[in-house]
Specification:
Layout lengths: L4 H32 L2 H30 L6 H27 L8 H23 L4 H7 L2 H25 L7 H31 L9 H19 L15 H6 L4 H11 L4 H8 L3 H15 L4 H8 L2
Helix pairs in contact: 1-2, 1-8, 2-3, 3-4, 4-6, 6-7, 7-8, 10-12, 11-12
Length: 316
Amino acid sequence: MILSYAMKHVILLTYSIIFSTGFGALAALLVLSIRLKQPFTKRMAVVQSIFIASLALVAIYYYLMQVLELVGPRQEQVETVFGIIGTLLNMGLYIGMWWILGIRELRKGHISLYARISCLVSVGIMVSALVGSFLPTSFLHTMTPGNLWQIFVYLTVAVTLFLFGLTLVRVDMKQQHAAYRLLVLGIGYCSLVFVPLSLLELLLNRSTQNSLYPLSLEYLFYLGINVIVLVSSIRSLAKDPNTASAFGSINEATWSRFSLTAREREMATLIAQGLSNKEIAGNLGISEATVRTHIYNLFQKVGAQSRIELLNLLHD
């Protein structure tokens, strides 16, 4: 189907927004991984990379079909190749979700277990689709009615995303940094919103015969996640004295290894929260000169030349 010139510009603008926020979110996840030192951010960065690759695949396919018009009589072969690559990327997404749900704090409860099982079922569907791409079309139609299979796939994806989101929004985040809470809960709620969006997308495709392809309402879900990640990254750079340090908590073994006094431990904790000497003095009710003395002693014991180096050494 050849789209109008105006429609092509709409698609180009949409993909520009999605890709720019997507790469920005990937960079933000790397920042969050350094700042928060949480396995969730690292694993989410892998999933984000697969998301971007999936979008790139759709964009390349659209480019070949609509702009270069290179397909011609080879359309079926091109669609098969792109379909196989797309299926492999989708498998990667569900495996990535299963990997995220394997984090200790997310493994608790029956909902998490059901979510992980649902991820594996989704991977199984992708494997069957991959195998089916090498089978004769007539054989596939005989084995599985098209409408029935489409409904089954939709329900599986919807259930998987719903359980994934429900797991994230139910996890106890009270002791975590505000940026981490925002990240996990935000992605959780976006995953829950995916379910009605996906249903609306299915109804629109049936009523318009896929006339809006490659645009999708599900891109709102992806855009929402990108915005959440970017805001969380900015939030991680802000001072948050009411929560744990953005660098994470320092264990007792580290305190003992450097023979730090109770006051020096307080200094390190407040430094990790981003407080200045003046703010630390106000918090503890001591003078700035005393704060500088304690910090100097702290630097000498740890062997640091700057606050960043101090925090990195204390969290190694």
